[in-house]
Each structure stands twice: as C-alpha cells, then as structure tokens.
Amino acid sequence: MLGLCVILAVLARTVAQDAEEPVSYTCTDGYEYDPVRQVCKDIDECAIVADACKGGMKCVNHFGGYLCLPQNAQIFVSSGDEPSQPAEPSAPANPPQSPGQGQSEVQTHVQPGRGPGRRVSSSRILRCTPGFILDEQNYCRDIDECTRGRHTCSADQICYNTRGSFLCQCQPGYQKNGDQCVDRDECLLSHYCMHRCVNTPGSYYCECNSGYRLASNNHSCVDVNECQVSQPCEHQCHNLIGSFICQCNRGFELAPDSVSCIDIDECAYSPYMCQYACINTPGEYSCTCPDGYQLQGTRMCQDINECETSHECTEEEMCWNYYGGYRCYPRNPCEDPYVRTSENRCVCQPTTACRGGPQSIVYKYMSIHSDRTVPADIFQIQATNIYPNTHNTFRIRAGNEKGEFFLRRSSNVSAMLVLTKSLEGPLELIVDLEMITHHTVANYRTSSLLRLTIIVGPYAF
Ligand SMILES: *[C@@H]1O[C@H](CO)[C@@H](O)[C@H](O)[C@H]1NC(C)=O
Ligand SMILES: *[C@@H]1O[C@H](CO)[C@@H](O)[C@H](O)[C@H]1NC(C)=O
Where exactly are the transmembrane stretches of this chain (predicted)? Predict the structure, then answer.
C-alpha cells in the first residue's frame, strides 16, 4: 500500500500540476501508457503479435487495434491534416466509463490546444482526429466516408469504410496499377483451363480445341463424339479422342474432303477385270458376256451350246455348235452320184461314175477362236482303212488360196492340218483335204476327200 502511494504521488507531481486529486491512469484495450510522454500510446500489434493476420493478409496498425487487409489494399487517410499522427491520442483516458458497451471511440478524445496528460473533461469543447466526428455523447465516432461521399475512390472502385479512414479496392478481376484499376489478365496468372484461356475485362473463360467441348465445370475439355452428334461421314464414322475418322463401304474410297465416299471404278483397274465387258456400278462391278456366251464365275465367258439348249434346226438338219453360235447343216450333204453311207460320209456308187473325182467325201465341222496364236495344229486327217501294199499322200486340194494352212504328214496314214496365219472371226472357211492312196502292187490310185468347214468365232474365247 505504501509503495503504491509513492508511485501515484510521483505520477501526480510530474504529470498534472492542476490535478485536484491523485489520479490513476489506465489505458483502454490496444493502448499502453507511455510514462515518458505521459500519454496512452497505441500499441503496434503488427510489430508485436506474431501472425497477427492469416492467409497472407497485410497487417495494418490502427488506433486501438489493427486491420488485416489484402496485400494490394491502400489506405487513404481522410482530410489528411496530420496523416502521420492520427494514431496517437494525446490524452490518457479515465477508466473506461462503460467498457461493456464497447464504445472504444473514447480513445480518440483530444483536448484542444493543450499539452498532453490532461484529463478528459466532458465539459470542454472537444475535437476528434481526422476521420472521426464527435457525437452528442462526446464520443468520437468513425465517419463512413464511403456512404457520405467523402472518399476519393474512382467510379470503377469499391469503397470500404475503415476506422478513421476508407479503402479503395478494385472490382473483382481488376487490379491496381498506380491509382487506376486495370483488368487482371487471369490467363497470364494461374487459371485452370484445360486447353485455352481467354481473358475478358474483369474475368476470363476457357475454350477447348476443336473436337472437344467445355465440360460443365467450365474448365475441363471433354471429347465430342462427332459420330453421334452430327453424323459427318457419308458411310462409316469412327470417333477418336478429339477427332473422328470416316471409312467407306467396300467398293468406295474416301474423297479428298475425308467425309464423302466416291465409287471406285473397278473396271478402270485393269482391262483384265472381265473377259469380255466390265460394267461399273456403285460399290461394285460386274462382267457381261456377248450373245452366245454365258458368265462362268465372275469374269469368264463360256460358250453356250445352243444345240443342247435351244436351236431351230429341223429334223433333216444337224445342229453344229461353234464359239458364239450354232449352224444347221443338212443331215445328208451327199449329192449325186454320191450316196450317204454313214453320218457325214458320202461314197460314189458305183465307183466308176466318179472316175477322176474322189471315191468318198467326208464332211467335218470344227470351230476355232478368233485370233488364235499360230502356228497351231488344228485338225488331223487319218486313213480309216489301212491296206497292205499301199502308200498314202496328203494334200490340201482347195480352200487355201490365201495360204492360211499347211498340211504336215505325220505318219504313213495321217497328216496334221496346221494353221499358219491368225484368223479374225467371225469367218467361215471350207478346206478340202485329200488323201491319195497308191496301191503299189496293182498300181492304181484312189482318192478320198475330207471337206472341213472351219468356223472362226467372233471372239478369242
Ligand atoms: C459455367 O458457365 C455457365 C455460363 O457461363 C454458368 O451458367 C455455369 O454456372 C458455369 N458452371 C460452373 C460450374 O461454373
Ligand atoms: C510306211 O511306208 C514305208 C514304205 O512305203 C514303210 O517302209 C514303213 O514301214 C511304213 N511305216 C509305217 C509306220 O507303216
């Protein structure tokens, strides 16, 4: 008790000459007593409180407390009389009159024109530090510069009232550049666009590469299944990640536009696609054959044997099929004095009537392809009866005026007809082949004729 009285006495003597009684000085929260200057001094919480502000906020010391503000916030001090001093109230306060009401404005009471250390007296004329206004209860209350139009924020800035002052902040998406708010390019900073970021005034949006679309989170890009969305291919569509590919049905190929299909002209591949004629159709081709032929398989042509199927030969006629058609020949080709002894065989009766002419005439028919490669053995003539003491010779008696044939003796009783020039059909040739038999003992000769009708078909098949 004694010690306390001494301290108070010292304080009273040095602090206040005209104090009527010893006074105990206490400072409100956020202030501390400065025994040298004898004032309540604001505590710089930013300097002494570790981690006063979280989350990267900037700590700004303020009367009786501190503010946590964004790093880019700027503080404007209203009226600007003594901007460096407002944080220092010049008088210690009495014990707070009503601390429970939280009227901390009392901290900024100032006694006009007097030295520090004066007790606050409500009967005097009081003045508040800039940014505060005295109310009816002699409290200095904060002026809301933002609502009262006493701020310097520009039209594109947002005004925030603070104790004793105000803050100007930029709209979201904008940032301070000197006194101005300029668009923040979110695309240059961190953004979450999967493919492309597009900056806009105050904001940004994401774009996706072609073949993708923006997901519902507005940042990711997801593949577009073009095949389902727009059926872009003429034939078959295969979706790929970010793209698609078209395929054509068999017989078609992809056009240069990569989506259309154009018919492949298979006939143009090769002249050998078909033996006779190739007909291109969309997606495929087919072969045709000329009259008298039928398709064998897909490309070959086969002669139709009209004599076995349909022909118009009479009973007296014999049907002879050849490559590409048929002929009707008389069953009995024999002319007087020749009489028919067997099929195709005419014999002179009696033989004396034919002296000088062949004893017998045999009719034969054969068919060859057009443009047949030469030389080619095409027909063999052979003696039907072989007698002893005879010698046979063979010759072409008629029908070889252009020299298309050559008869080669192949044995004593046979010879081969050789085609020496290629024949182009359709063509009909009649060649008389003669066999002369020399009877060596009786010393006489007989002759027999083979009348060969050669029909050259119109085609090489
Ligand atoms: C994506 O953007 C649209 C239109 O801008 C908006 O309506 C929607 O809420 C946004 N979705 C998300 C997840 O942000
Ligand atoms: C062919 O005739 C000759 C005589 O003219 C004879 O010597 C030869 O043996 C005969 N050849 C055959 C295969 O009959």
Answer: none
Percent of the chain residues topping a pLDDT of 90: 56
pLDDT at position 39: 66
CB atoms within 10 A of CB 404: 19
Higher pLDDT among residues 250 and 123, named by residue: 250
pLDDT tens for 170-208 read: 999 999 888 889 999 999 987 789 999 999 999 999 999
CA 426 / ligand 1 centre spacing (Å):
84
Of 91-95, 289-293, 420-424, the least confident: 91-95
Domain with 204 in it: what CATH number?
A: 2.10.25.10
pLDDT above 70 for 26 = no
- Decide if 168 is inside a domain: no
One domain for residues 123 and 235: no
Residue 192, amino acid: Y
Does residue 12 form part of some domain? no
Boundaries of domain holding 439? 325-456
In this prediction, residue 37 carries a pLDDT of 64
Distance (Å, whole) CA 371 – CA 425: 7
For residue 220, give the ligand nearest its CA: 1
278 and 215 part of one domain: no
User: For ligand 2, atom 6, which residue shows the shortest CA distance?
Assistant: 412
Query: Are the beta carbons of 28 and 89 closer than 8 angstroms?
Result: no
DSSP string, 280-306: EETTEEEEE--TTEEEETTTEEEE--T
pTM: 0.54
The answer to whether residues 216 and 271 belong to one domain is no
Tally of domains in the chain: 5
Hey, whose CA ends up nearest to atom 9 of ligand 2? 412
Separation of 294 CA from ligand 1 center, angstroms? 71
Are both 239 and 209 inside the same structural domain? Answer: no
- 279 within some domain: yes
Q: Which ligand is nearest to the CA of 413?
A: 2
> Is residue 197 in a domain?
yes
* Ligand 1 touching residue 209 (CB < 6 A): no
